[in-house]
Amino acid sequence: MTKTLLRTAAFATISGLATIGLAQGAAAQESTNRVAAETDWSVFVEESPRACWGVTSPKETVNTRDGRVVTVRRGDILLFVSYRPDQDVAGEISFTGGYPFAPDSTVSVEVGTETFQLFTSGDWAWPASSEDDARLLEAFRRGAQAVIVGRSSRGTRTEDTFSLFGFTAAMEEAERRCR
What we know:
The protein is of the alpha+beta class. The protein has a single domain, classed as Invasion associated locus B (IalB) protein (Immunoglobulin-like, Sandwich), CATH 2.60.40.1880. It contains 3 helices and 12 strands; from the N terminus they run αββββββββββαββα. A hairpin with a 2-residue loop joins strand 1 and strand 2.
């Protein structure tokens, strides 16, 4: 697991993922609380406040502008599922694309033949409701990969492919640890 992944995982926990005004200084902190690795997913736990999450990075990333592949600089690209029992959060999905999303844009998530939409704020994207989280979690459990497509504020189309191998075991572990 790279230090970047660890740093971002800690940042996500500290900021509570759903908080729109993400704290500036938290990104520099690192989490060393990885408790499990399930194929392509890792599980982390923090004790105060109690939080557990699974996280993965993409297996493939393609960036295009005007239909042509381009090289761009992006920050951490991560897909999370979080459990925060003190806030009654169980299975909250979030995605950070490593860049600010275009204003008023959405991010699409394709799993098999199903497509889901996430709303965006800054560098982050989430399903609109806990019901949408539940539908996407179920698709992740059945699927082999998730393809997430977003658009940056500069107009770059990003397509990130995430493996779902180990997803179910990682989520069972995260959920068990945050009961």
